[in-house]
Write a structure and sequence with these properties.
CATH class of the largest domain in chain A: Alpha Beta
Largest sheet of chain A: 11 strands, mixed
Number of domains of chain A: 2
Largest interface: A-B, 61 and 61 residues
Shape of chain A: globular
Number of helices of chain A: 14
CATH topology of the largest domain in chain A: Isopropylmalate Dehydrogenase
CATH superfamily of the largest domain in chain A: Isopropylmalate Dehydrogenase
Radius of gyration of chain A: 21 Å
Distance between the termini of chain A: 41 Å
Helix content of chain A: 40-55%
Strand content of chain A: 15-25%
Oligomer: homodimer
């Protein structure tokens, strides 16, 4: 466990850049004083922000560049234009060179994934990376992956998602053996895609010490908190996340509109303000901010682009915990110890040895 | 347009059966007096319920059977055991024989789809049926399909979903040319599965008179009401629906818990009760009850199993409207006029004529 956690921040990422990134870093530093920051971006925009946070200034070093990856760039464009020069690339580069333990950006997701994958490469045994998110549930929080890094994939890809998600959940929730469910459209064994059924059989057969496979979970089981880790390929994971976010926003807006409609309900709102605030806190997307890139030889966290400083601080917190509690080694251990078997264990072995 | 709408009800379907189905029919009859009912199920359980609703009794005929499909039966079991004898089969059989215009059941979804497909067969030009639902949005309601009848499928399957969904939306929302979006994980053309991109190109190339194709829609676009019809294959459609339902339930429960926590918030609840009721009404799953089976040579509606009489009445209403406004002919017309081109129009034609 390293004594200091060294965090590289893309200070030009997101809708706002430095005015959100720097105050966010200051908030997170307040919670974890044993942090050092590498602030990558335009010095002229970083310094005025930094002057308002002397403690952060003392714990930070600026890496200057004025090249930013735009939110509109396609991944290939970003790689072509921003490689070796952009704030996003240089933050990842600091991880690659061992100058930082984690890189965090609120920039263009596709570009960040493309650069991270290109520069850091995937872990041994992992073909395709994943994005994992933290989902608020009735029981607390769950890790959900893949949220859109990789579309499709065979049973072994799904199994590797389960292993990586379990490693992340064990760090986040301090559970040595988190429960893992596979997202499916029915809980009966006969339903769903072939690769999900096969992944379920592999997980059951392997009976890994680092995760407790509980079977299939339907879409409404995520919010119920039926498992610490919910695994699905990137297309359906992204659809589930966005559909849930959309519904939460829709209900909040409907409630707000209804509360404005009469003096009675306005009065009610005044009395119940604390309850509404508590609901907002529990469903606050800022608080579950921080998409982990999993499967790379380095820790990279993606923050929402349209987040405020408090939300960005949560993304930093996630990165901090992943480093402090050694996520990469945990994943590697599981992949090597348990995952050494990933390719050898088959649901129906046919090879003659 | 038929003068009477003849509705066959599976009076043994759902968690409760006749005690929900019969009062539900009575409610719907109150809204549409020009309805006739065929009540299929155990006469001994139907008659006592019917005695409480003399108007319904006058508009109904009982088809007796004491064979029910269980909620736990797999589709193949249900077909084997319940064919020609079960209330579910006989309700579908009434449609097949032309004795009813629509069959409605709150029973086992997989069994209902298997029986309907087996007995009614699919429409010409349709290989695989779909389930369409009505989704409450910020703008009103949208039709979303497929909610889980068919997993996967090629671009032409997705296009046929768009055509059938548009026909349903034109009936439900009285719009001659409803807007149609394809569910995807990014709005840029480069993202998503190959078959979704190809379906988008076909829809754009065909420029059908019965639907207005607007492009890709992400998961949170459903609740925003970005299109009258949202199209996706059955796996992701089911995941989206369940994730959204789960989130709505989760928020409602959180809010209820928070409102109980202090006397201030309890008082607030009393004042704002009307607002909460309005929210509940808008997000009430009972009100969007009624999954349409599309692509069959007959109209079949699936009600939720755990619904109350009011909710079952909504499912009947949906069936009623589909018959009254001639959904089947609309779909057939679109498939023949427009869809005659479904197989001939290709995004990149290569045939030499």
């Amino acid at each position: 466990m390293p004594s200091k956690v060294r965090i590289a921040l893309d200070a030009m990422g997101g809708d706002v850049g430095a005015p959100v990134v720097i105050p966010g870093a200051a908030i997170s530093l307040g919670r974890h004083p044993e942090t050092e920051f590498l602030l990558v971006g335009d010095r002229a925009r970083i310094e005025p922000e930094l002057d308002r946070h002397p403690k952060l200034k003392a714990a930070s070093r600026i890496v200057h560049t004025d090249v930013a990856v735009s939110m509109e760039d396609k991944p290939s464009q970003a790689l072509r234009r921003g490689r070796k020069t952009s704030s996003m690339w240089l933050a990842i580069d600091a991880v690659k060179k061992g100058e930082a333990d984690v890189a965090i950006s609120a920039g263009n997701t596709g570009a960040l994934m493309a650069m991270a994958r290109f520069h850091l490469r995937t872990l041994p045994g992992i073909d395709r990376p994943a994005i994992a998110g933290i989902w608020p549930t009735m029981r607390g929080e769950s890790v959900v992956l893949d949220l859109g890094a990789t579309i499709g994939g065979d049973a072994h890809h799904v199994v590797s998602l389960a292993v990586m998600g379990a490693a992340m959940a064990s760090v986040l929730f301090s559970k040595p053996r988190p429960t893992v469910g596979l997202l499916n459209i029915g809980t009966e064994e006969i339903k769903g895609h072939e690769e999900i059924r096969e992944a379920g059989e592999i997980l059951r057969a392997m009976n890994l010490p680092g995760l407790d496979y509980i079977g299939f979970v339907e879409g409404d089981g995520i919010g119920k908190g039926l498992a610490d880790v919910i695994v699905t390929e990137g297309f359906s994971g992204n659809i589930a996340l966005k559909a849930a976010e959309g519904t939460a926003r829709q209900m909040a807006e409907l409630l707000r509109n209804e509360m404005q409609r009469s003096w009675m309900s306005k009065l009610g709102y005044l009395f119940a303000r604390g309850a509404f605030q508590a609901l907002r806190n529990k469903m606050d997307p800022n608080k579950s901010n921080g998409g982990m890139f999993l499967g790379l030889r380095g820790v990279v966290v993606k923050s929402h682009g349209g987040i405020n400083a408090e939300g960005f601080a949560y993304a930093i917190d996630v990165g901090y915990e992943m480093v402090k509690f050694d996520l990469l080694n945990k994943i590697n251990q599981m992949l090597n110890r348990d995952g050494g078997g990933l390719s050898s264990v088959q649901p129906a072995p046919e090879d003659v040895s």
